[in-house]
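INFO batch 0412 | record 1 of 1 | parsing
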Amino acid sequence: MTLIETLAHWCAAPPVFSVRARKLACEAIADTLGCMVAGRNDFSTRSVLSAWAEQPRSCAQNALLNATAAHAIDFDDNFGPGMSHASAVLVPALLAVAENRDGAALVRAYLIGLQAQAFIGEAIGYQHYTAGWHGTSTIGCIGSAAGVAALQGQDAVGIARTLSIAVSLASGVKGQFGTPLKPFHAGMAARNAVDAATLAQTGMQGRMDIIECAQGFAELYAGTLSQPSLPDTNGHVIERIGMMPKKHPCCGSTHRILDAIADIQQQQGLRAEDIESVHCQVGIANWRNLAYTQPQDEMQARFSMQYCVAVMLKKGALSVSDFTAEAVQQQTKAAQLASITLSPWTVAQEAENVDLPHILTLRLKDGREIVHSRLRARGTLDEPFSEQERQAKFRDCCADMPGNADLYQTLMALEQQADIEFLRQLMI
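INFO prediction complete | emitting tokens
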């Protein structure tokens, strides 16, 4: 069988997912819904809403709008195997076609779509991301399409058609990072996932070997191809590798450095006024993502190591309120961003070890130097958020929504919900 056929057969009849996998899925869905609410008034979301203002909206348009909102403030989770903001695409795409489905079906489809993203990501490898492709709107589109088709009840043949169509809809480049179009990439991917599944139901089809064939996805988008695997008894990817929910509402490429600052502040009580200069050493792809040394607006600030570090040193935390036009203007005037520098590991260093830490070096005014490294950010399976931290983030994102604490508890029991109509209050 081709890669698409192999994946489609697994998606049509996956193994029974463990209690732990389903619990982790509920946590990821709740986190995404909170981010979706927090992003509904962002410029990118409002732009999409203005462009497609007619009512009633189609399923694909609903996916577009809500996925843009989910990714708008860059507070949504990262997913390493898919090189993507997996949930920001997958959850809104599933919600768009979830009418008359129950919570258990939604959770199951989420786990199918997530594993599909991991499968495609493993097939084409990290070269896809380092070449400049935005995995959220490429791999995210293809994998989410599998989840949508499964939720619609399509069989293996239909899911395979869906996947082939989605390959032709996968696009989006990282050069758009720091602009309102980046969150639109998530919306575009969710819309394309729904469109691919809808087209497949009409009988539309493409090549089943479109990932591995000449002039296919792997050759054009990555240049390499590996043989990916699918879980049987060794656990779902959400259990083995996990999601990376965010502690900070900014690009994930800053997070290990920001967590290193938090470590030092907690251990040594360091103050911003004690620091002469800061240097951050990060991975090449992370360095390329952080293109704005002197951000001019809130979107650029989310992709500025200098801005994020300056605020973290000053306040000890980053919040959604630090990424408004007014806050960025105030902080960039007050902060000495030029004293914060950034450099990548070399190509040779990354070739020797693909799992390098991010290193923070603080030079203090008294002549001391503090060096601290982090291999992982907070929120991974190695250092997961507590239940209190997850709930606090959801409440913060949904601060204007009455009863958000009760809503969070309902989402934690999503599998037991026979009627998921209540989720509409979280959608636009």
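INFO post-check: The radius of gyration is 21 Å.
INFO record closed
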